[in-house]
Specification:
Layout (H helix, E strand, L loop, with lengths): L1 H8 L1 H12 L12 H4 L1 H10 L2 H6 L26 H10 L11 E7 L2 E6 L4 E4 L2 E4 L2 H7 L2 H4 L7 E11 L10 E3 L8 E6 H4 L9 E7 L6 H4 L2 H16 L7 E12 L5 H15 L3 E4 L8 H19 L5
Parallel strand pairs: 4-10
Antiparallel strand pairs: 1-2, 2-3, 5-8, 5-9, 6-7, 7-8
Helix pairs in contact: 1-2
Protein name: Coproporphyrinogen III oxidase
Function: Involved in coproporphyrin-dependent heme b biosynthesis. Catalyzes the oxidation of coproporphyrinogen III to coproporphyrin III.
Enzyme class: oxidoreductase
């Protein structure tokens, strides 16, 4: 992706504008990311109009969105009750007797006409078909090395968000937040002013800032304490925004090895992985953010595809 944009706009614009806008979504290195796996619409624009700028001007199906993924519509969308309500709604639809929480699958064992799921607590469940919805490191851990070899070296980045609540609104620049260039000497990679994006989530007169930390190649986050992360982000806020007020509270949410990196060759690796699964584990389907998009709409679309394939498999349409 980096070379694609540098060839057309120069290295300076790529590092200061393009990289934080596009690769920041994936917490990745723009010079290692696959354009076709992340933002294929740019290549489509060139194929339709001959050059990028003209292609983006044409009122066609070449549309950009805020996440770069295929299924997102519009900007700054969330659920009124918070994203937790999505999980709560899913749980409410599942039969209680079939829902197992706090149980980790450590191995999937192929048996004649079925699969056995071995849990860390020693219990075993038998299934006719399986959907694995997880990042690819989990897939590698529970299936054999030969099948998962295409994703053997696929990196995952550790991330964290830091939320700061303030008793009153500070004089922030106009907008809804900012992004930080990868080359800048800051711990945080972005900041969202929640009261500006989603006013219903913040009490009147209060302020909530959400900072984002972590990018590919960073390792300090994996060993840092919550307090160290908080102090680093507060130092960023003071330098970049002149914000010196002390927050009412701060909360760190960690996502260890959570963000898949769509590096060059990602789509080819994905095709090989899917072929291996079909050959070695018929009836096992893989979905999640390691496939074709890290956004929630992409994960939902991938999950719907997997569920439809499971139904077809159980009905004998897929062998």
């Amino acid at each position: 992706m980096g070379e694609f944009f540098e060839k057309r706009f120069g290295k300076g614009l790529v590092k200061k504008i393009v990289e934080p806008l596009l690769s920041g979504i994936y917490a990745g290195d723009i010079y290692k990311m696959s354009l076709r796996a992340t933002f294929p619409q740019f290549e489509t624009a060139i194929s339709k109009a001959g050059n990028l700028m003209e292609g983006l001007k044409t009122p066609s199906d070449v549309k950009l969105n805020t996440t770069g993924t295929k299924h997102t519509v519009g900007a700054f969308r969330t659920l009124k009750g918070g994203l937790q309500t999505l999980i709560e709604a899913l749980v409410a639809e599942l039969p209680v007797e079939q829902l197992h929480t706090d149980k980790r699958v450590i191995q999937v064992i192929k048996k004649p006409g079925a699969y056995q799921l071995l849990f860390a607590d020693g219990t075993v469940e038998t299934a006719d078909a399986v959907i694995i919805a997880a990042t690819h490191d989990v897939l590698r851990a529970i299936l054999d090395e030969e099948t998962t070899a295409p994703f053997q070296d696929q990196p995952l980045t550790t991330l964290a968000t830091v939320s700061f609540a303030y008793d009153e609104k500070a004089a922030l620049p106009q907008g809804t937040g900012y992004l930080v260039a990868r080359t800048a000497n800051y711990a945080s990679t972005a900041c969202t002013w929640v009261q500006e994006k989603w006013p219903h989530m913040v009490p009147e007169g209060k302020m909530l800032l959400r900072g984002f930390v972590g990018k590919s190649g960073d390792t300090w986050l994996e060993t840092a304490t919550d307090e160290q992360i908080i102090q680093k982000v507060l130092a960023d806020y003071q330098e970049m925004m002149g914000l010196t007020a002390q927050p009412l509270f701060a909360e760190v949410s960690r996502m260890e090895h959570a963000m898949p990196q769509y590096t060059i060759g990602h789509l080819e690796k994905l095709a090989k992985l899917e072929a291996n699964l079909a050959a070695n584990y018929p009836g096992i389907y893989y979905t999640g953010m390691s496939l074709t998009g890290v956004g929630i709409p992409d994960c939902i679309a991938n999950a719907q595809t997997a569920s439809h394939e499971v139904v077809r498999y159980l009905q004998g349409e897929l062998l």
